Sequence to fold (91 residues):
Amino acid sequence: MVTSLVLLTVSRDRVNEVAEELAEMQGVSEVYSVAGRYDLAVIIRARDNDQLADLVTHHMLKVRGILTSETLIAFRVHSRHDLEGMFSIGM
Fold:
C-alpha cells in the first residue's frame, strides 16, 4: 500500500467543485480544503506506485481548475491515534 499527499493549487472559483470531483475518485481517501500556500490536500491510498502514478497523472490532473500540484509519498505513519488504538483494551 502506498500512501501519498497531493497538495493542489486550484482556481479560486473551482475549489469546492474540484474537491468534490476528487473525493469521488477510486483511491482518493480524503480531500481537505486548507489555508496557506495550497488550496486542497488530497490523501491517496494506492495499491502500488503504478496505480498512484495513473491516478495522479491520468485522472486527477485532468480535473478542470487544478493549476499546480506537488505529490508527497509517505514512508511511515506516526500517529497518536494509531498508537492509542493498539494499546487500549475494550475501548
Notes: The CA atoms of residues 46 and 53 lie 9 Å apart.
